[in-house]
Write a structure and sequence with these properties.
The complex is a heterodimer of chains A (581) and B (336). Chain A is α/β, with parallel strands linked by helices and 581 residues long. In chain A, 35% of the residues lie in helices and 24% in strands. Chain A folds into 2 domains: 180 residues, 3-Layer(aba) Sandwich (Rossmann fold); 288 residues, Rossmann fold, CATH 3.40.50. In chain A, strand 9 and strand 10 form a beta hairpin. Chain B is globular, with a radius of gyration of 25 Å. At the A-B interface, helix 2 and helix 3 of A face helix 9, helix 10 and helix 14 of B.
């Protein structure tokens, strides 16, 4: 990082900015008296949790605050222009040509009914009407190739591109008019680590080339450490700390910044969940293996999502088995097969000796009670029309566990306490009144109430703020440790898998490429693919540079190479037998 | 533009044929569940006209033979299906012995003309107003006026028809009261006839537009709100595109897609919905034909009209299915 570069002239000066949202219940102050200057060529990270005002601050520069938001005090100066004094038409012309926005949801940011090329052209034409077609074509081609995409992408529709490609198109769009300032709002939050590294490096290279200022909005301290020059830490609409990355990472002053840095789980050392290895999960009496995969595979049309896999998870020793991989590795397919939502193409899935696809009504009910799931999106898991206690009460009664309303209430309260929630505070609320972290804990509490034998957790913390991840993971860990529940933890996050699990399987294109205890597999990876994954993680550690191995990433070549190496088995754990391919 | 795969078209064709066959069968079964004997009704009608009827049993048997209802069910069914595929629905029992297909052929152009024109007008007006209810640049006055105009949507068509007749035909005398064309006008390809048809069609069309535009406007409003919240609309604004361009190319163009499917489905529903409008305005279309047939218990006509409604609906859905891959590239991706 170029910390000692003398600051050039400022591209953006925000002086005493306050942003408020008048609501029927009173005025909400989203940003309070913020002062910040961004210099030419500098990358500034806005870090903070959801609701900290980081996106709101950035959007105020574009004059694109959501209704009814407004800037109540202060001035915004973009390279000598007073943004707040511009009229609507002047502001429209300023957008993209002087300040570009790269949105968060790469998946839906492009117009689905238009090919890529016209979407680049209409942007140019909106600012430079009458640009001849040949000129448009050469400029869009230049933009597309500058982000490392092949030119034929211009002829495709958005749905024909992968998430990483769409995000690159958005970057190409952002730089097509060489703006003075680029605002990138969590541009990689929907991408896996390998793609994230490529996209961020592309964005940084191109920003350095055109010499614009960059605001990178995010909540991942590691990503910030590896990609920006300066950090602005926001909390509840206030700028609590601002400095170079080096200053902030190495000697954070504000306690909130310290929390943000320390809450990032690192790979290495002992698990923060079980540091003294004293954990002694209660054993269960069980004669039948809990879950058994017998040559299970899954094909979607011509695509093989999961190659034949066999393993046995014993019922007597509760373990946490992590399944890690990129998007498309087949890990979520495995999860849905285990839950019986998705029949395997070949093979059988047995739960306590019964084939999931051939269960009687009673067996199926028993299976549903014994196998619970925690999904990624804590927002989508609740029916918004009911108070949350309904979501907890309903399965409890449905499975005949309730012995009257008093008992149900007691069970709900106990479950809430077990996941660190105050039952009086949360149970009678509606889902929208709770935070993402609270909702996700309630989902864990709901699973706990049914005292299942197996919990399938599919990316349970990926949508939760970083500072809450650790505590939710420890809730999940307690399920095993205190309640003897076996857990399959599906994730793309190797650091959390390292801390939570007893055994890790790394999946790549539906194959297990490396498996064993986390300290071996993640702490000291042997397979080239696992190494690539670990290498792609941005660490909040300036000494540990983000490699540059991702630029030549070619999935088909990588697959061939990974298959050549074959699976690496790094040791076993009691109660789980993976059949070696 | 890549071609639509053959399997997709074959698939849709099979669906089309099956829909029509199943619907035709249901139309055949339902009247046969009723205890009414059409031959007896015809005899009753004769008796009412002539006072008494001799050899009632013989006549009844002849009528049954003529109507083909003396044969076993399966024979009747096969004959019916064969006929239906050739658009031959037998003879009307009320206007015996006029073929049902001739009655329909007379009524259908009137209804199609009235219906298609009013449906297209409603579709355009309704969707545009619905879109304007959401667009942030719509003048404030419009945002108040459009929802207020929705009041008309809650008026039953029969009332709005009477109201329009009372104001424009009875009081102001701008338009004729009833009929599809003037009594003194000779049908033909003449200017007098055409203007008479337009004059006569205006009020029925208006009464349909007024009561149904709200359906499109409200549906479009919901779709537009969804599209407005989507990331590509936000990015379009961040790109500095002109507001009107965003409205058409980014918002309406995406929001309209489900409405086009609804349009196809509405074609069939509208004939049924038009029954009362045609009745009030004494407009000789399919709606009036159906209404009279129900009063007369004229089963062949009821069957014929129902079949034509289904045929039109199925055909329009089929056509939309064929157009859809061209208006929504994602569908092409799924079928490929």
């Amino acid at each position: 990082m170029l910390d000692d570069v003398t600051p050039k002239k400022p591209v953006l000066t925000m002086a005493d900015i306050s942003i408020e949202f008048p609501t029927p219940r009173g005025v909400v102050q989203a940003v309070k008296n913020l002062n910040l200057t961004i210099h030419k060529g500098r990358r500034v990270g806005f870090i903070g949790e959801s609701g900290s005002g980081k996106t709101t601050t950035a959007l105020s520069v574009m004059q694109m605050l959501a209704e009814p938001g407004r800037v109540s005090t202060g001035t915004i100066d973009l390279g000598g222009t007073d943004i707040l004094a511009l009229n609507e038409e002047e502001m429209r012309k300023t957008r993209l040509s002087r300040v570009a926005y790269i949105p968060q949801g790469a998946m839906n940011s492009l117009n689905p009914i238009m090919r890529i090329e016209p979407q680049l052209w209409d942007a140019i034409l909106a600012h430079e009407p009458g640009t001849p077609r040949a000129d448009l074509k050469s400029r869009s081609d230049a933009a597309i190739s500058s982000v490392g995409l092949p030119l034929h992408v211009g002829q495709l529709y958005p749905h024909e591109l992968s998430g990483g490609m769409k995000q690159r198109v958005c970057i190409a769009l952002g730089i097509i008019l060489t703006p003075e300032l680029i605002i990138a709002d969590e541009p990689t939050s929907a991408l896996d680590v390998v793609t994230q590294r490529q996209v961020m490096q592309t964005l940084n290279e191109i920003q350095a080339k055109i010499g614009s200022g960059l605001i990178l909005i995010g909540h991942d301290m590691g990503l910030m450490a590896q990609s920006v020059d300066e950090l602005a830490v926001l909390k509840d609409g206030e700028l609590v700390e601002h400095g170079t990355v080096k200053q902030i990472i190495e000697s954070p002053k504000h306690p909130y910044t310290q929390d943000l840095i320390s809450s990032v789980p690192l790979v290495g050392g002992d698990s923060f969940l079980n540091p003294d290895k004293q954990a002694n999960a209660p054993r269960r009496d069980s004669t039948q293996p809990l879950l058994r995969f017998e040559g299970v595979s899954k094909k979607y049309g011509a695509v093989t999502a999961l190659h034949p896999m066999s393993f046995t998870l014993q019922g007597d020793t509760p373990q946490i088995i992590s399944i890690v991989g990129q998007s498309g590795s087949g890990k979520s397919t495995m999860g849905s097969i285990m839950l019986g939502f998705n029949p395997p193409t070949t093979g059988h899935v047995l739960f306590e000796g019964h084939d999931l696809q051939r269960m009687s009504g009673t067996q199926s009910l028993e299976f549903r009670k014994n196998v619970q799931a925690v999904f990624q999106d804590p927002y989508a898991c609740f029916n918004p029309f009911y108070r949350v206690n309904h979501a907890l009460k309903f399965p409890f009664k449905q499975f005949g566990l309730s012995q009257g309303d008093k008992h149900t209430q007691q069970a709900m309260e106990e479950a809430c306490v077990a996941v660190g929630l105050d039952p009086d505070l949360v149970l009678s609320r509606y889902p929208h009144q709770l935070s993402g972290g609270q909702r996700q804990r309630l989902i864990v509490a709901r699973a706990l109430m049914l005292s299942p034998k197996l919990l399938i957790a599919d990316e349970p913390v990926s949508m939760v703020d970083a500072s809450l991840r650790a505590s939710i993971l420890s809730n999940i860990y307690d399920l095993k440790d205190k309640y003897g529940i076996s857990i399959l933890y599906i994730t793309h996050d190797l650091a959390t898998a390292y801390h939570v699990s007893d055994y890790v399987m790394v999946l790549f294109k539906g194959h297990v490429v490396e498996a064993g205890p986390p300290k071996a597999v993640i702490g000291d990876p042997q397979h080239p693919y696992t190494q690539l994954l670990i290498d792609s993680i941005p660490w909040p550690d300036l000494q540990r540079a983000w490699g540059h191995g991702g630029a030549n990433w070619d999935p088909s070549e990588q697959e061939a190479q990974a298959m050549k190496v074959g699976a690496v088995y790094r040791g076993d754990v009691e109660g789980f037998d993976l059949v070696r391919a | 533009m890549s071609r639509i795969p053959k399997e997709y078209i074959i698939n849709r064709l099979i669906t089309l044929v099956l829909t029509i066959l199943i619907a035709a069968t249901l139309i055949w079964i339902i009247p046969r569940l009723s205890p009414v004997d059409p031959a007896e009704i015809a005899l009753g009608r004769m008796a009412a006209g002539a006072g008494t009827v001799e050899n009632a049993d013989e006549i009844l048997a002849t009528l049954r033979a003529q109507m083909g209802i003396d044969q076993p069910m399966i024979v009747q069914y096969i004959k019916y299906i064969k006929g239906v595929l050739l658009l031959d629905f037998g003879l009307s029992t009320a206007a015996f012995p006029t073929p049902v297909s001739a009655l329909i052929a007379n009524a259908l152009p009137w209804t199609l003309g009235l219906m298609l024109i009013s449906l297209i007008i409603t579709f355009i007006v309704g969707n545009l107003l619905g879109a304007l209810m959401v667009w942030e640049k719509t003048p404030r006055l419009w945002k108040v006026a459009i929802p207020a105009a929705m009041v008309f949507t809650s008026i039953p068509p029969i009332l709005s028809g009477l109201l329009l007749m009372w104001i424009f035909a009875a009081k102001l005398q701008w338009f004729p009261l009833t009929g599809a064309y003037g009594l003194t006008v000779e049908p033909g390809w003449t200017w007098t006839f055409a203007s008479s048809v337009l004059q006569h069609g205006f009020l029925p069309a208006l009464s349909i537009v007024v009561v149904t535009f709200g359906f499109w406007a409200l549906g479009m409003r919901g779709l537009m709100i969804t599209v407005q919240g989507e990331d590509h609309t936000t990015l379009a604004k961040a790109k500095g595109l002109k507001p009107r361009y965003i409205l058409y190319k980014y918002m309406i163009r995406n929001a309209i897609l489900p409405q086009i499917t609804a349009f196809a489905l509405k074609i069939g529903l509208l004939i049924a919905g038009q029954v009362l409008v045609e009745r009030i305005f004494a407009y000789n279309g399919m709606g009036k034909l159906l209404y009279d047939a129900i009063l007369d218990q004229d089963f062949p006509v009821i069957q014929g009209v129902s079949y034509v409604i289904i045929l039109l609906t199925a055909l329009s859905v089929f056509i939309v299915d064929l157009i859809y891959p061209f208006i929504d590239p994602r569908v092409r991706h799924e079928v490929a």
